[in-house]
């Protein structure tokens, strides 16, 4: 961690792409972590540096008790992600600290990735890949190793925010009828032909494919009962939050054949995910990489820096939480 002798304006408490780090140093004389920092390290360094801004990650997510220990110099906590469930926003506001996120930066790339999970799960991508890597030498006949059609299948989306709507746009290109469940119904121009279902329990039996796109909350959304309400042979996709899913129930549904397959990018325990999932052939797995493109990650970092610049210049934040 190196900074010029003059005053540090920003602590970046997580690793960032090179372009983001270069701008942070140039504009804010930033101190940048070589590894993602934990909370005690962030608190100690903030007290030492007297910086007015900090960019955090999940490893350095602040509880109310942590925020109470931040020095008076802190004016903004910037999150370079859309989600901010790793910190206590109300406690920050109570101290007069501005909290921001990056709601638009990762939308399109995460939606691309989510649709990849849909395609990969339906078309048995993991199994086909393993066949090839083991040196495919036996031809398959017409009834062998069949996947599930995507085109024309009914897609259920839970959480019709920016990413959910972006997934729906992609699904329309596959002629998929779209159902969605949300806390509130969207205006017609945002629904764009999707059908709102106010009760999730009523929507689940109508879904050939179900995809989650909502933030983590206080309860597990996909329970054993919820999985059982999906039709036999349905496909489940989660690129939102692992805490939304009862993984024991998910594994049971996959092993029994009630679910045809699943595409997963998030897990209840990361990176120490349940290894039983890796043993199931009908699961396509990714290590929480939904936004992992150069374009998206740069924009996530730049959005955090844009918010820091606005606040330190005395202007309102661009993306307040």
Short description:
The protein has helices at 18-28, 39-49, 64-68, 89-94, 107-122, 125-133, 162-172, 188-191, 200-203, 224-229, 247-256, 294-312, and strands spanning 10-12, 31-32, 53-55, 76-78, 98-100, 155-158, 178-181, 195-196, 209-212, 234-238, 259-264, 283-285. The chain is of the alpha/beta class and 321 residues long.
Instruction: Provide the CATH architecture of the largest domain.
Output: 3-Layer(aba) Sandwich
CATH topology of the largest domain: Rossmann fold
> Which strand order do you get reading across the main beta sheet?
8-7-6-9-10-11-12
Sheet with most strands: 7 strands, parallel
Q: What series of H and E elements makes up the topology?
A: EHEHEHEHEHHEHEHEHEHEHEEH
- The total strand number stands at 12
Note poorly predicted spans: none
Number of domains: 2
- Helical segment tally? 12
Helical content stands at 25-40%
Structural class: alpha/beta
Domain D-isomer specific 2-hydroxyacid dehydrogenase NAD-binding: 115-290
Domain D-isomer specific 2-hydroxyacid dehydrogenase catalytic: 53-321
Protein name: D-glycerate dehydrogenase
GO molecular function, one term: NAD binding
Question: Please, could you describe this protein's structure?
Answer:
This protein has twelve helices and twelve strands. α1 packs parallel to α12 and α5 crosses α7. It has 321 residues and is of the alpha/beta class. α10 links the parallel β9 and β10. The two termini are 29 Å apart. It folds into two domains: 115 residues, Rossmann fold (3-Layer(aba) Sandwich); 179 residues, Rossmann fold (3-Layer(aba) Sandwich), CATH 3.40.50. A seven-stranded parallel β-sheet has the order 8-7-6-9-10-11-12. A five-stranded parallel β-sheet has the order 2-1-3-4-5, with helices on both faces. Keywords: NAD, Oxidoreductase. One of its GO terms (molecular function) is hydroxypyruvate reductase [NAD(P)H] activity. InterPro entries: D-isomer_2-hydroxyacid_DH (IPR050223), D-isomer_2_OHA_DH_cat_dom (IPR006139), D-isomer_DH_CS (IPR029753), D-isomer_DH_CS1 (IPR029752), D-isomer_DH_NAD-bd (IPR006140), NAD(P)-bd_dom_sf (IPR036291). Belongs to the D-isomer specific 2-hydroxyacid dehydrogenase family. It comes from Telmatospirillum siberiense.
């Amino acid at each position: 961690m190196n900074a010029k002798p003059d005053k540090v304006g920003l602590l970046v408490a997580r690793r960032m792409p090179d372009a983001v780090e270069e701008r942070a140093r140039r504009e804010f004389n930033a101190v940048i972590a070589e590894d993602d920092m934990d909370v005690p390290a962030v608190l100690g360094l903030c007290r030492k540096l007297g910086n007015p801004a900090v960019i955090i990650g999940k490893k350095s997510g602040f509880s109310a008790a942590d925020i109470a220990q931040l020095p008076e110099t802190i004016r903004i906590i910037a999150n370079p992600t859309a989600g901010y469930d790793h910190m206590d926003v109300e406690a920050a506001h109570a101290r007069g600290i501005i909290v921001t996120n990056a709601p638009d930066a990762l939308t399109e790339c995460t939606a691309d990735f989510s649709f990849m999970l849909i395609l990969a799960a339906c078309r048995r991508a993991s199994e086909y890949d393993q066949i090839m890597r083991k040196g495919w030498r036996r031809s398959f006949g017409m009834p062998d190793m069949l996947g599930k059609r995507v085109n024309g299948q009914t897609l259920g989306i839970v959480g019709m925010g920016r990413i959910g709507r972006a997934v729906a746009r992609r699904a329309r290109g596959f002629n998929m009828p779209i159902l969605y469940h949300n806390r509130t119904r969207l205006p017609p121009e945002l629904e764009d032909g999707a059908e709102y279902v106010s009760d999730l329990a009523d929507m689940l039996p109508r879904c050939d494919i179900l995809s989650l796109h909502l933030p983590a909350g206080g309860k597990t959304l996909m329970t054993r009962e919820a999985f059982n309400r999906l039709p036999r042979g349905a496909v489940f996709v989660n690129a939102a939050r692992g805490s939304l899913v009862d993984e024991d129930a998910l594994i049971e549904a996959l092993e029994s054949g009630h679910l045809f397959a699943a595409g997963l990018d998030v897990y209840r325990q990361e990176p120490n995910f349940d290894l039983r999932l890796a043993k199931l052939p009908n699961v396509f797995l990714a290590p929480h990489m939904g936004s992992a493109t150069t374009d998206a990650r740069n924009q996530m970092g730049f959005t955090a820096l844009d918010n820091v610049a606005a606040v330190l210049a005395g202007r309102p934040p661009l993306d307040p939480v």
